[in-house]
Amino acid sequence: MAQAPKLIGSAPVLLVAEVVKAANYYRDQLGFAYDRFWNEPPDFCMVKRDGFIVMLAQACAGTQLLPHWKVVHQMWNAYFWCDDVESLHAEFVKRGARIDYGLGIKPYGIKEFGIQDLDGHDIAFGQKI
């Protein structure tokens, strides 16, 4: 019997107002990197860190961006698990990232914190305790 195909990766896609500014925020404040922008003028970029990708797609001018937390109370647009959440939090603070909520132990057994990017997307980083 043939083995079922398996998923090997995932990448959230976030709509942003200005893709170059957004990509530079992810690079400078969150330690992601990128190789290139697509199209001219640029309207798409994939930022990467530790093998994970966030795709940034520029919305049409004048489009109202609606982060998940504006629809569902305290809902993230993306969530990443990490192996040392305290050090990651300290790195982000040092880099000047917008900390949305500080380190804390959640009722679901995760120590986590959240950031907010330039477009208001909430992204959480957690570690199982």
Structure description:
Strands 1-4-3-2 form a four-stranded mixed beta sheet, covered by helices on one side. It has a four-stranded mixed beta sheet with strand order 5-8-7-6, covered by helices on one side. The protein is globular and about 45 Å long. The termini are far apart. A hairpin with a 5-residue loop joins strand 2 (37-38) and strand 3. By secondary structure, the chain is of the alpha/beta class. The protein has two helices and eight strands. It has a single domain, classed as 2,3-Dihydroxybiphenyl 1,2-Dioxygenase, domain 1 (Roll). Helices cover 18% and strands 34% of the residues.
Distance between the termini: 39 Å
The H-and-E topology, N to C, reads as EHEEEEHEEE
Report the radius of gyration as a whole number of Å: 16 Å
- How is the largest sheet built, in terms of strand order? 1-4-3-2
Basic shape: globular
The count of strands amounts to 8
Measured by DSSP, the beta-strand proportion falls in 25-35%
What are the main properties of this structure?
129 residues; alpha/beta; 2,3-Dihydroxybiphenyl 1,2-Dioxygenase, domain 1; 4-stranded mixed sheet; 2 helices; 18% helix
